[in-house]
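Q: what sequence does this backbone want?
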């Protein structure tokens, strides 16, 4: 009888301690505006990174924004996807301090990824992506909407400026990114924007690497694998002018 009583007491204490631990964890993850320090593992995409959180490797999906894809099994590589990934990668890799902020609702999506606002040295990465025109406001699900109004205002400014994903009409829409709206003419604008104003197209074939300046007769139909600002830069990268 004494052994049974002792067992019940121990079990009760264990359950109380476990319950308190879970409650503390929930409060930590869902407390208003509290930022939690994490360690970067790697950048996965423009809106997803991998971090070490509470000793475990976790994927983190940025709350309330969406960037074009870079390795989607169905959508493939979308315009501005690489730029968004590189921008995010630079921000998080260069940061001395990386932090997550959870909203008040669910902190994981259906894939098990953490849902959070991400800070690199105190600057929210979502805001920076929106300012650069590399992300759209998306996946707005109550109650995780703490910064939706702020994000929407930033997006409106990027739309007015016509930068990044907003440089091509109807490319970024409420349901995602529409590569099919990009015509030959708008493709030039995309390549110009992606090349940051550098207009020389570098094309790579099975046997050669050729660059085309805007006055080349093959310029318009050339698919650019790389963009260069000067012919000298293209030549230094191993490209030659067309014969």
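A:
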């Amino acid at each position: 009888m004494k052994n049974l009583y002792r067992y019940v007491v121990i079990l009760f204490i264990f359950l109380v301690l476990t319950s308190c631990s879970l409650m503390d964890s929930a409060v930590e993850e869902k407390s208003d505006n509290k930022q939690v320090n994490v360690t970067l593992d790697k950048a996965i995409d423009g809106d997803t990174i991998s971090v070490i959180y509470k000793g475990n490797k976790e994927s983190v999906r940025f709350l309330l924004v969406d960037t074009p894809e870079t390795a989607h099994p169905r959508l493939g590589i979308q315009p501005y996807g690489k730029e968004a990934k590189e921008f995010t990668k630079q921000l998080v890799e260069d940061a001395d301090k990386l932090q997550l902020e959870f909203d008040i609702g669910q902190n994981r999506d259906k894939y098990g990824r953490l849902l959070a606002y991400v800070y690199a040295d105190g600057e929210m990465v979502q805001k920076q992506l929106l300012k650069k025109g590399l992300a759209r406001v998306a996946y707005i699900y109550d109650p995780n909407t703490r910064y939706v109004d702020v994000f929407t205002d930033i997006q409106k400014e990027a739309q007015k400026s016509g930068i990044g994903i907003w440089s091509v009409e109807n490319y970024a829409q409420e349901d995602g990114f529409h590569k099919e709206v990009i015509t030959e003419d708008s493709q030039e604008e995309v390549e110009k924007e992606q090349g940051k104003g550098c207009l020389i197209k570098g094309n790579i074939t099975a046997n050669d690497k050729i660059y085309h300046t805007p006055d080349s007769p093959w310029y318009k139909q050339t698919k650019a694998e790389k963009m260069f600002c000067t012919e000298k830069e293209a030549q230094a990268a191993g490209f030659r002018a067309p014969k």
